[in-house]
Each structure stands twice: as C-alpha cells, then as structure tokens.
Amino acid sequence: MDKQTQPTILFFDSGVGGFSVYKETKQLLPNCHYLYCFDNEYFPYSEKTEEEIIQRTLSICHKINQDFPLDIIVIACNTASTVVLPVLREYFSIPIVGTVPAIKPAAEISETKHIGLLATKGTVKRAYVSDLIKNYASYCIVEKIGSTKLVEIAEQKLHGKSTDLITLKQELFAWQSIMDLDTIVLGCTHFPLIKEEIAQCLPQVKYFMDSGKAIALRVKNLLSNAKVQSKISEKNLIFCTQKFNYDSQFENTINLWGFEELNILTVNE
Ligand code: DGL
C-alpha cells in the first residue's frame, strides 16, 4: 500500500476498549489512516437499549464519514456489533466490520468443553449471541457472566486508576469454583485490557479468546479487494463525544497508540 492510496479506517467504541482491536490492526497494517472515536457521552453501552445504541452508532459514523470519507468502519465493540451491523450495512456502501464474541474458536480450543462468555450485560442476552452458541458451541457447556463493573474497571485502568481487584473478584465469583472451566471468551473489547487481572482471579483458565487478531486479518483481506479512496498521507485522529479532563497517563496512552490531541465530535441525533 503506497502513501497515496492510504485507506481511512474508523474504529468505534463506547470507550477505550476498542483500542484492543485497533492495536492489532495497526500492528498488521501500520500505514493506514486511522480514526478512533469513543462515545464517552453515552458510556457504558452495557445496559443501554438496542434502539439507543443503534441511534448513537449510526449518527456518529454518519458524522465522521461526512468529514473524513471512510473506506472501512470497524465497530470495535461487541455490545454495539450484536445489534447495529445490519443497519450500518444497509446505510453505508463501504465494508462494515463487526466485533463479536469468539465463541467458535473458544469451543474448538477448549479441552474440557466447558467455556465461559464474559461480556457486557447487553451482549450476554442478545439473540445474536444465543445463535453463535447454538451454531458453534452446542457441544460445550457455556457459562455466561454479563458485567458493567468490569467495563468500568478496564476504562479506569487506561485513565491511570488502579484496578479494583475486590470488585473484579466479586464479579467473577460464580466461576471461581468451576475447576474445569478452561477457556474464557473475552466478549467485550475492554476485557483484553484487564486480561492479567482476570487471569489472577481465575487461575484454572488456560485460554483467553478475543477477536482482535481475526479483525485485523479481516481488514487486511477487505483492503486487498477494496477500491481505496486516493488521498495523500494524513495524520491519525482520535475523537470523543464529550469534553473531559484527562490526565497525563491517558495522554501518554493515546500518543503511544499514534494519536496526538483528543478532538471533540458534536453528535446531532
Ligand atoms: N467495549 C464494548 C464492548 O465490546 C462496550 C462496553 C460498554 O460500553 O459497556 O462490548
């Protein structure tokens, strides 16, 4: 890919969780033009209604696409992906990549065939997820935990706050005594950011599965077939939907991931 045909890719999440997906893609495709937007005004999405999530995601993607014509949109959020993909695919003509829980690879890799889905409260009850389990893990026992607190803990970690291990343990309590639970699906993009802490609470777990690498490969594959909008090299941009005071740790994190200052996106619904 030369610099003249640098594709513009938007990563969207409610918070910093989408970084866990963006990071994998950036590593694989370092020369794309990346935009990252997080909807901190509506964070967390975990318990929001499906209608609210569809409305927010559509308005935000529409607004960004108007200002920065996009080649691919990655919905780097399981909670949103399990409801918005059909709507976005109807609205936009560019490829829309969703992030959904890695149930199939988890079922395949598990030796005990006893797996756990750790996701938001919204994701664990979606029909999309029940269908994934029915289609790809019907031969496994699948435990589910839906948690908003874990999302908040992960978000806080990237804002420089120490991880609340007591709350983390309480949220995972139901799985601590399931000794043959050997595989966990990190079905929320925030959770790879606290994987080490989760592993400390559940020492019996051997495999933690997330969708970051699969998404990076999917983006690469789409780009090899796509007609990319020709443009000169531009700098990567990060947006949030509400002004907030961030500390130097957060600033360092976004700098490390290739972004400069944080921009505010005004969303008209
Ligand atoms: N990171 C998101 C996900 O993958 C959403 C977390 C939230 O806002 O509740 O589900």
TrEMBL record:
Q: In which pathway does it act?
A: Cell wall biogenesis; peptidoglycan biosynthesis
| Coiled-coil zones | none
Q: Which residues bind substrate?
A: D13, S14, Y45, S46, N78, T79, T189, H190
Q: Where are the transmembrane segments?
A: none
Primary enzyme class: isomerase
Keyword line: Cell shape, Cell wall biogenesis/degradation, Isomerase, Peptidoglycan synthesis
Stored InterPro entries: Asp/Glu/hydantoin_racemase (IPR015942), Asp/Glu_race (IPR001920), Asp/Glu_racemase_AS_1 (IPR018187), Asp/Glu_racemase_AS_2 (IPR033134), Glu_race (IPR004391)
Question: What reaction(s) does this enzyme catalyze?
Answer: L-glutamate = D-glutamate
Active-site residue list: C77 (proton donor/acceptor), C188 (proton donor/acceptor)
Source domain of life is Bacteria
Enzyme Commission code(s) on record:
5.1.1.3
Which one Pfam family would you cite for this protein? Answer: Asp_Glu_race
Record family assignment: Belongs to the aspartate/glutamate racemases family.
Family matches, as HAMAP family: Glu_racemase
Q: Which PANTHER family match?
A: GLUTAMATE RACEMASE
Question: What is the recorded function of this protein according to its Swiss-Prot or TrEMBL entry?
Answer: Provides the (R)-glutamate required for cell wall biosynthesis.
Q: What is this protein called?
A: Glutamate racemase
